[in-house]
Structure formats: structure tokens, C-alpha cells
């Protein structure tokens, strides 16, 4: 028994939506895990993190300017600080500071090993990805009202070894994809 193209497309679309849903659930778990693993000094890096659910998955972003250095590390060495203009401001004690130019200068930075907080979060949640996808597929394709025995769907009388001699009864009811059950 073949399946017409429209039914095939509907099934394919439903499968892709379920897989995407499972991947998105996994993204939420990865983000939560990365929030637990991110190193905290001031809390700015942790607060700069965010999860964006996309139509085909997810994206985690940490917007702090030094996020990549904390994740990946830095080789160290000489770093040139660009010239800038310091804006006029008032200190806490009430002293007024005038606008001034700051010359560029070099500093020697130490080598730093990355903490890999995001990489470790992805790695720790990777085994659950297939489980999340399977659960989403199961939720999408569960037949309502069907009883199961030991995790297997109940037979609808189509078993050739059954007492009916292999004869099956057709259903006049349509499933959610438009085909007969």
C-alpha cells in the first residue's frame, strides 16, 4: 500500500517539527547548564548570556566583550590599547574631571587557559539530545485512545498468525494525516 505525496509531505513536516522541538528542548537544557558552569567574578558575563530559539534549532550567545576569551583562553603577550578620549565627569567626592585625551600604550598580558563553560555544557547535554528528540516524536505521533502492552502498541487484528486467519478489518475513520488507520 503506497502513500500519496500529500500524505508523505504532511508526515515529513510533522517529523521535522517534532525533531526541531526536541532539539529546542535540548538547547534550553544546554543554556541552563552553561549558566551553572560560567565563571563568575562580577556576574556581568553570566547576565550577558541568552538563548534564542530559532525555527530550526537554538543559539546561545554571551555578549560580554570578553566572553570568547573566558571560553577559549588567550595566548598572552603584548596588547596595544588604542588611544581614546576620556569624557568629562564628576567623581563621587564631587571633584570635576575635564575631558582629556589618553595616549595609546602597550601592556603585557599573561597566558590564560579557557574555562570552556559553554563547550562543557554542550558536551554534558549531548547524550540527552536523542532522548529529547525521541520524546518529541513520541508526543507528536502517539495514537490517542490506544492501549499498549509492555511498551508496544496493541494489535489491530492485522497479525497473519492470529485466529482470524490473516483477514483484517478496514477502518472507515481517518487518522490525523488524512489516511485510513
Averaged pLDDT: 83
Q: Please tell me what the overall shape is.
A: elongated
Order of helices and strands: HHEEHEEEEEEEEHEE
Tell me the Rg in angstroms: 29 Å
Strand order of the largest sheet: 1-2
Per DSSP, what share of the residues sits in E-state strands of 2 or more residues? Answer: 15-25%
State the helicity in percent bands: 25-40%
Strand element count: 12
Q: Based on helices, strands and strand pairing, what is the structural class? A: alpha+beta
Largest pleated sheet: 2 strands, antiparallel
Task: Indicate the low-confidence ranges by residue numbers.
Answer: 150-171
Tally of separate helices:
4
Report the end-to-end length measured between terminal Cα atoms.
12 Å
Can you give keywords for this protein?
single chain, alpha+beta, two-stranded antiparallel ribbon, elongated
What does this 3D model show about the protein?
The structure is a single chain. The protein is built from 4 helices and 12 strands; from the N terminus they run ααββαββββββββαββ. The protein has 181 residues and is of the alpha+beta class. Helix 1 (5-37) packs antiparallel against helix 4 (117-140).
Amino acid at each position: 500500500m503506497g502513500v500519496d505525496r500529500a500524505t508523505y509531505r504532511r508526515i515529513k513536516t510533522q517529523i521535522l517539527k517534532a525533531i526541531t522541538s526536541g532539539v529546542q528542548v535540548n538547547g534550553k537544557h544546554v543554556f541552563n547548564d552553561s549558566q551553572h558552569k560560567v565563571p563568575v567574578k562580577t556576574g556581568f558575563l553570566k547576565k550577558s548570556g541568552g538563548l534564542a530559539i530559532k525555527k530550526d534549532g537554538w543559539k546561545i550567545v554571551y555578549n560580554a566583550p570578553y566572553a570568547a576569551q573566558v571560553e577559549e583562553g588567550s595566548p598572552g603577550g603584548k596588547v596595544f590599547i588604542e588611544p581614546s578620549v576620556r569624557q568629562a565627569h564628576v567623581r563621587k567626592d564631587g571633584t570635576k574631571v575635564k575631558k582629556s585625551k589618553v595616549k595609546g600604550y602597550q601592556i603585557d598580558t599573561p597566558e590564560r587557559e579557557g574555562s570552556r563553560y559553554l563547550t562543557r555544557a554542550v558536551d554534558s547535554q549531548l547524550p540527552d539530545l536523542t532522548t529529547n528528540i525521541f520524546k518529541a516524536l513520541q508526543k507528536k505521533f502517539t495514537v490517542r485512545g490506544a492501549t499498549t502492552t509492555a511498551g508496544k502498541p496493541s494489535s489491530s487484528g492485522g497479525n497473519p498468525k492470529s485466529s482470524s486467519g490473516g483477514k483484517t478489518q478496514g477502518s472507515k475513520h481517518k487518522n490525523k494525516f488524512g489516511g485510513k488507520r
